[in-house]
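agent: user wants the structure for Valine--tRNA ligase from Dictyobacter kobayashii. delegating to structure tool.
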Amino acid sequence: MIEQEKTTEITPITDVAALPKAYEPQAVEARWYRFWEEGGYFKPRPNPSRKPFVISMPPPNVTGALHLGHAITATLEDIMVRYHRMQGDETLWVPGEDHAGIATQTVVERLLAKEGTDRHKVGREAFLERVWQWVQQYKSRIQDQHRRLGASCDWSRERFTLDEGLSKAVREVFVRLYEEGLIYRGERIINWCPFCMSALSDLEVNHVNTPGKLTYVRYPLKPLDGQTGGATEYISVATTRPETILGDTGIAVNPKDPRYKDLIGRIAIVPVVEREIPIVADEAVELGFGTGAVKVTPAHDPVDFEIGARHNLPRVQVIGFDARMTSEAGPYMGQDRYEARKNLVADLEKMGLIIKVEDYVVPLGRCQRSDTVVEPLISKQWFIKMMPLATPALNAVKYGQIKIIPERFNKTYFDWLENIHDWCISRQLWWGHRIPVWYCDTCGEMTVSREDVTACPHCGNTQIRQDEDVLDTWFSSWLWPFSTLGWPDNTADLQRYYPNAVMETGYDIIFFWVARMVMAGIHFMGNAPFSTIYLHGLVRDAKGEKMSKSKSNVVDPLEVMDKFGTDALRFTLATSSTPGNDMKLIDERIVGNRNFANKIWNASRFVLMTTAGISGGIPTIDALQPQTLADRWILNRFARLTKSVTRLIDEFQFGEAGRQINDFFWSDYCDWYVEIAKVQMQGMSRPGRTLL
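agent: tool returned. relaying tokens verbatim.
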């Protein structure tokens, strides 16, 4: 037995007839949940003879209320946890929340804007106090919402990604990776959000096919030495971003393209700004795109950045971090990037340098949080070399250490890891894990440290400053399976409960989170953080459309539970889902499952009423002695159901398991067996009433 610290009293049923005729979930759910939690029933029960079953809850962002994605996560994980708990396994479900750097800072900044101020006016310290006020409010709200969902997690082990222990883990990982040469600082093209005013990783950018224009522009060629008079020669390029012409420092052609063989090495003139730029040969140029010649803007495009590095081309930044044109843009300085585009094209048209403009679909990068169009810019940021971490993570799935369900996501996982880019981990925010690096302006040295630095270890100067940036949110959550258990300290929980058994989450964060957790677990713990990855699909509306506030089709799980009960929502989510596939949330199904919960209530009420006089109470299933053909039939059907549902849950086929339970209870038990029992009991004495 587990130790009971404080127990909510549950009054035994003494008057069966007084039970309501209809199930009233609001009168039952909260009372029983308190009984379970306060009785300590969600804590793991030591069982040295069996391997622990451990799940780490995907931590919701502390930006607001839980949504249906959290509801299906809680439902499926609770099914697994309760199943293994009933099997006698030592079961641990670790709950927690994520500080959600950009998202949370954006929410609080909007609140400040409504008050007529901003974070720069209030200062860093006061701003962080406001964020912590927000976090404390929503952390407790999220925990209460998970309780409403019936999540049987061990709340005594609840974690937050900015807890002291998890912050210690973050620093240890940063310093260790830096010491291993896997973390570095450098100038590279990054994704920059002009709204969030922060760098983003590739995974935080949504590429949306957007109608745009492909503009064909002529660049005059500088006459060859000794060449005078004659018609001006031109080379033509095609671009979807004419405003970046002002930052061109080269034109590239494929060395195999016969059209440009004699132009390689010539000098072209950038229109308006009159900059002389070389024509270079580079195999990165696609022969079939546009004119076959491409403008090279190393400061505003990642491919151009690489071409520029190979040919020693200068980097001229013409778009600033505020998305306005810089002084390098000449007459367009200070204009918004799109205003400058419009004005430049008009000027080029007047100069006779526009050949044609075609409609063209552009895969436009947008910030995942603000939906602002991302600007590729050169910036000095912190990066992690990912390939050394990605290879072991790829092999873990390839050679069977980890199983992904459904298996078709193996290819998705492999493709990303095989083509992975270095991870930009620094963010120009105030909310989050501050980068543990200190700079000394006296001697110019940099110090990376696990502990706060008060004096420069190189020269002793106390006038040092910590890096202003914070780490990407995912830098803390990729440590989740082991940081929540006490790492880097060698705790008893870490020894007993790592690795986890299952990582259950949505397929849409297989890159952001799942693959990164595998990398971190293998690198820092020596083995994979879990043996199974179960990926559920998205919850869509009844029409199959993705839920969004702009469509006004968002369903609040709390409203559904208030109206129909938690069981109705959970059973609908569980039985509407199959591994890795999106599901439609249909009102009729929720109503049907509310009726199913009511059917269970009514059947239970009937059994309690008709067996109230049995001495010794109702025996367990194992102790029952069938007395009729109907008894033997229902026990046989029940045994078959038990075997089938056990297999289905072991195979993660939760939806089919739920459907079979529904069919058995509604049809076999209620429609057939209970009705037969009613007839049999009409002439029987009370001692014969042994089975219902």
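agent: one observation worth passing along. The two ends are 29 Å apart (CA to CA).
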